[in-house]
Amino acid sequence: MTKSPASSASTAAKAEKNESWRDSNSPSRPFSFPRKPHFHLFVNADRIEHFRKRLQDLAEEISNDLAANKDDAGIVELDTSIGRLSRMDAMQNQQMALELRRRRENQLLRIKNAFKRMDKGQYGKCGKCGKPIDEARLEVFPDVVTCVACA
């Protein structure tokens, strides 16, 4: 089957219409986000002190929270005055408090490791690939060990 010159012209017009959004100087990809400069491995002293202060505040907050909620994970007493459903609810609350405590303790360990990385000059470097961790990621999670790609 042969194409008529009219159908070839209409196909070319459609292709031109679809490509009209591209600038003649643009690359083959239509859009790409501008790359932000990476967080350098040699973090200046001011930024290290900023992150050290944030980590100290976070560690203090977690320690205070753990001390205040120490009794939440206590043993659920098997008392006959409590109904069966109330006892199950108390046991569920106990397990949730234990899990929250475990997570907070793990976060304290990550914070201590972050201080060690700061002392070694490795803070801001991904533990898996060795590339710099973006500063915005460190602002949100100052105790993070990996970059976004390796997480």
Structural write-up:
By secondary structure, the protein is mostly helical. It has a domain at 38-140: Up-down Bundle (Four Helix Bundle (Hemerythrin (Met), subunit A)). Helix content is 54%, strand content 0%. It contains 4 helices and no strands. The protein has helices spanning 5-19, 45-68, 84-120, 135-140. Helix 2 (45-68) runs antiparallel to helix 3. The radius of gyration is 28 Å and the shape is elongated. The model is unreliable at 19-26 and 32-42 (pLDDT under 50).
Mean pLDDT: 76
Question: Into which percent range does the helicity of residues fall?
Answer: 40-55%
What is the CATH topology of the domain at 38-140? Four Helix Bundle (Hemerythrin (Met), subunit A)
Distance between the termini: 54 Å
Describe the secondary-structure layout.
Layout: H1 5-19, H2 45-68, H3 84-120, H4 135-140
Protein traits:
mainly alpha, Four Helix Bundle (Hemerythrin (Met), subunit A), elongated
